[in-house]
């Protein structure tokens, strides 16, 4: 659906060239939710704004649904942009227009007939759960409600792609979750391709299928969220994974236990249905190994349940090796720490 080829963007500041994107190659498939995560200044906003050409790339190609946007004149670009909706961190609503008028705005601009606009606005307000607020002004809405208006407005022209520029960064955690759930719902109901940028791993973990990690204007790691999450390769990715993994606390616990003697400490990762099966207990019973739990989490990555347990094995060395081998044979990931 979206192909970025050797995308580069330089800004010029006081006569000096500031490179923001340094050769981005990415393919985003139709219907997927693709997250781009990076620290401040990494190039996220520049990248997402290049996808709808709000920012003109210095070189490279942006191909959306087979059309290379970098080759189009302004009129054709305007047309193609209708395929690409966008929502923003600070919502960008018209403060002097009601909820319904904000949603109707792109349709009025496109000179659609009034009956069609009314029907579409009603549908969209139902989709985002704001029917009861249609005549309110943005100042009378909560942050989450404002973002719902932003989403409804972005969907007014039936886009194929929705770009989300830090869409939940101004919201509290509970509201963030409700907006993420809405995005997931829209993705499923409408088959919409969603690209979002964020600096929060929680956002990626909740709804994305794949993720790209951007650092210094390049994608340093890319893959399925589950793979990137469980086996981060690049230091920047590891930092982001630590945001949601209690890693600092874990390091302390492991160091403390190791200091107490020659302990075998393992991290066991359960995925999917295995998360809920008593594999650990069975294996320990069969191999006669005792164990104590040092840390544990059960969570979800989008639709996949996963659990991680850090345990100390206190059998003899042979029993411990057999337990580790058996856990691996039963499909669990076991890392000796
Ligand atoms: N309009 C601009 N003029 C000059 N330099 C810019 C402009 N916009 C961005 N930059 C620079 O380009 C680089 C990437 O910025 P960008 O805003 O894309 O990063 P970001 O990852 O979105 O950061 P943040 O999360 O802080 O918004 C930074 O060095 C930034 O200073």
Automatic annotation (TrEMBL):
Q: What name appears for this protein in its UniProt entry?
A: Methionine ABC transporter ATP-binding protein
Species per Swiss-Prot/TrEMBL record: Brevibacillus aydinogluensis
| Example of a GO MF term | ATP binding
Query: Where in the numbering of this chain does the ABC transporter domain appear?
Result: 2-241
Q: Which family does it belong to?
A: Belongs to the ABC transporter superfamily.
Query: One GO CC term of this entry?
Result: plasma membrane
Q: What InterPro entries does the entry give?
A: AAA+_ATPase (IPR003593), ABC_transporter-like_ATP-bd (IPR003439), ABC_transporter-like_CS (IPR017871), ACT-like_dom_sf (IPR045865), MetN_ABC (IPR041701), MetN_ABC_transporter-like (IPR050086), NIL_domain (IPR018449), P-loop_NTPase (IPR027417)
Q: Which residue windows are coiled coil?
A: none
**PANTHER family for this protein:** AMINO ACID IMPORT ATP-BINDING PROTEIN, METHIONINE IMPORT ATP-BINDING PROTEIN METN
The Gene Ontology biological process annotation of the record reads: amino acid transport
For this protein, the record's SUPFAM superfamilies field holds: ACT-like, P-loop containing nucleoside triphosphate hydrolases
Keyword terms of this UniProt record: Amino-acid transport, ATP-binding, Cell membrane, Membrane, Nucleotide-binding, Translocase, Transport
């Amino acid at each position: 659906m979206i192909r970025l080829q050797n995308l580069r963007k330089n800004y010029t500041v006081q006569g000096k060239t500031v490179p923001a994107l340094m050769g981005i190659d990415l393919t985003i498939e139709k219907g997927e939710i693709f997250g781009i995560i990076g620290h401040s200044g990494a190039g996220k906003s520049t990248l997402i704004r290049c996808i709808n050409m709000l920012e003109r790339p210095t070189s490279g190609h942006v191909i959306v649904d087979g059309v290379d946007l970098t080759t189009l004149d302004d009129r054709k670009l305007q047309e193609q942009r209708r395929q690409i909706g966008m929502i923003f961190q600070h919502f960008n609503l018209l403060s002097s227009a009601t909820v319904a008028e904000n949603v109707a705005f792109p349709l009025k601009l496109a000179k659609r007939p009034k009956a069609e606009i009314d029907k579409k606005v009603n549908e969209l307000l139902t989709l985002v759960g704001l029917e009861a607020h249609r005549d309110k002004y943005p100042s009378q809405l909560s942050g989450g409600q404002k973002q719902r208006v932003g989403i409804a407005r972005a969907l007014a022209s039936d886009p194929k792609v929705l770009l989300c520029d830090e869409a939940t960064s101004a919201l509290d955690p509970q509201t963030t979750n409700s907006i993420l759930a809405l995005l997931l719902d829209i993705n499923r109901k409408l088959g919409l391709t969603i690209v979002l940028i964020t600096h929060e791993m929680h956002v990626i973990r909740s709804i994305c299928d794949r993720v790209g990690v951007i650092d210094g204007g390049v994608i340093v790691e890319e893959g399925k969220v589950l793979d990137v999450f469980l086996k981060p390769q690049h230091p920047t990715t590891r930092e982001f994974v630590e945001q949601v993994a209690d890693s600092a606390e874990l390091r302390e616990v492991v160091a403390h236990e190791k200091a107490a003697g020659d302990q075998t400490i393992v991290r066991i990762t359960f995925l999917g249905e295995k998360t809920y099966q008593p594999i650990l207990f069975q294996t320990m019973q069969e191999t006669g190994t005792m164990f104590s739990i040092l840390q544990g989490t059960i969570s979800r990555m989008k639709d996949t349940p996963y659990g991680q347990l850090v345990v100390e094995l206190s059998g003899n060395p042979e029993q411990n090796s057999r337990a580790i081998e058996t856990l691996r044979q039963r499909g669990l990931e076991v890392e000796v720490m």
